[in-house]
Amino acid sequence: MQKQSTINDVARIAGVSKRTVSRVINGSLSVGESTRLKVEKVINELKYSPNAQARGLASSRSYLLGLIYDNPDALYLDDVQRGVLEVCSNLGYELVVHPCRYQSESLVNDCLRFMRRSKLDGVIVLPPVSESETLAAALKESGSPYVRLSSVALDSQEHIVVSDDRAAAAEMARYFAQLGHEKIAFISGPQRYKSSTERMEGFQLGLSVYGVKIAPDMILEGNNTFETGIECARQLLQRDELPTAIFANNDQMAAGVLKVANSLGIKVPEQLSVAGFDDNMLASRMIPALTTIRRPVRQMALLATTKMIMSIEQNHKAALNVASKVAPTLVVRESTGPCKTAVVANNAAALVAARRS
Amino acid sequence: MQKQSTINDVARIAGVSKRTVSRVINGSLSVGESTRLKVEKVINELKYSPNAQARGLASSRSYLLGLIYDNPDALYLDDVQRGVLEVCSNLGYELVVHPCRYQSESLVNDCLRFMRRSKLDGVIVLPPVSESETLAAALKESGSPYVRLSSVALDSQEHIVVSDDRAAAAEMARYFAQLGHEKIAFISGPQRYKSSTERMEGFQLGLSVYGVKIAPDMILEGNNTFETGIECARQLLQRDELPTAIFANNDQMAAGVLKVANSLGIKVPEQLSVAGFDDNMLASRMIPALTTIRRPVRQMALLATTKMIMSIEQNHKAALNVASKVAPTLVVRESTGPCKTAVVANNAAALVAARRS
DNA sequence: AAAAAAGTTGCCAACGGTGGCAATTTTTTT
DNA sequence: AAAAAAATTGCCACCGTTGGCAACTTTTTT
User: Fold this and answer.
1) The domain A64-163+297-326 belongs to what CATH superfamily?
2) What CATH architecture applies to the domain A165-296+331-343?
3) Where do the HTH lacI-type domain residues begin and end (chains A, B) (predicted)?
4) Cβ of B163: how many Cβ atoms within 10 Å?
5) Looking at beta carbons, which residues of chain B come within 8 Å of A97?
6) Which residues of A touch B91 (CB under 8 A)?
7) Taking the model in full, what pTM does it have?
8) Three-class SS of residue B235?
9) What is the pLDDT confidence band of residue A342, given thresholds at 50, 70 and 90?
């Protein structure tokens, strides 16, 4: 455990003042070429790396970013963490995580305390916490940079990266319609989440293009868990008139639907098509593998982090140039197929579409 | 964005020196009762919270713990993060994450740089990175506290929390044997991982108690992914003589086995019992739900963090008193059942056991 | 009651950087 | 070639805390 070298060591050996070394470290423009090379050489030889705390103390920056999240499933946690670090690690930032409870009434204070305590340079907020407007307001007031990941453009460009869940759900609708489904059910997430309403509306809108409408009793609300997926599926599948397709607000609930279908002897996709949303680990592993929507999680993390750092480094106009919207994509697997019972009734176009898939 | 109050403000208002305030903050013993109360009152009124960076600079502590991991599946990431924070958050520590690549040759340097850069007070290392002895040696040499989570007691008490995978695998063996299985296959993880060999040996040992031996051609090596699970299952299930039960080194591979069994029309658990290890999100969602082994992830995180902090705060003997070994438990679900083909040949005891489950 | 011991408290110098401004050197202009 | 401008560099105070040591109180001992 050898002692770390300090800026003084570098300065002494390089024969310059420590202020100059500091300039080199921070890439200041006004350093002579030769001096810079000399200093950089010594830095490398000594394997010097600046003390983040001292730096922070002097410059009131911590080189620490925060990640606030609740449901680790919403955007796959590891993907996000790797994505964020991919961008910020090279720039000298580290990532501090803060799992929390969206429902908790102390959420705002909890998060603010978190930021203050570690003197974070900025925070990235994942859904559904990102939907909290009180938190956003508090962050804005606190003056520290933040970026929210969400399904809706809840905030100005520099503060948000949105995944267009509405469009994605509409695409799923199109896909369902082209398969010939007409009796379609939807298991929504909690209506208090924007992501839930976006997906539901997008789905309904998408279907309406094809003249399909979801019957009111075919819309159920779960809370995005496997268990509520099961509950809702039970209600949907123990009726006289069954839906031929079910779209669930996320993969967990879709998995619940598969479970119930299986236990009731309903064949997927022959008798019932099932689709989810997220493309989490479950989707590709289920039997049958789930058709779902994949959000470009890593890309969202990259964009958010880029915005974050630009914002920290006062490059506000640039932050506006970073894309703010990403498009999730439909991933077709085994759990969806043409609507058999509807074949006769359907028009030719739908039939063709169905065969193609 | 009001200015944070400093220790000076507190000192001035409370009418004491800042050294005294510092003592109160750090719970020093030699502070008069009345003074302490007075100071604490002011601290609360001002909502003062000490500047972590200044504190770190002066005391060479950062109040930052690091989490080094690679495979987020090995111990469910969110559980670990919450577990760690549950302990350390109240004590004023935050958690900095560092996903990495176990295979990378720069692993050690990468991790050391990570620690040095943020001046971490200590790191917690998850499997499989925790099995790297070169990393452990480097950490030891660097002198900073670390705790490894692993399946084997690779290190001294204060540096490790182990989950007894060997015993758990033996319990699975017992369970299989009591169900009457004799033609049993095992899909191991990479043999370079201790956890893999532990589980394999534990399983074999456990079976041997019941006089059951796994045929050499019934042992395949995967690399813990769904895909290799499929590959291995294909090899096992496209033979003349099928195993009646397969134990996979983890849930991902077990899911692969289910997939193959399904596509070959082999009924689980009627014709084939399948079990995994981890009890990750997949296990309970699969159809049929997977019998598996659950490690007390949260508890491991709690223990590790407790050790970590004791070690940081120089309480070495106490660190030895914190439990170092936890017992994973068998979780029986739907993917395992009595061996039908073996019923005749089996003895009464096994039959009874089989019926009970 | 004086001396010794124990318990509290305060002063000042670190910790390792950055920022403002002045000083110095180099380049450009007149 | 002198003056002005620009580029480069250095000095010193300061960021907000903790640690060492001395000073001051209070309590205990003799």
Assistant:
1) Response regulator (3.40.50.2300)
2) 3-Layer(aba) Sandwich (3.40)
3) 5-59
4) 26
5) 81, 85, 95-97
6) none
7) 0.91
8) helix
9) very low
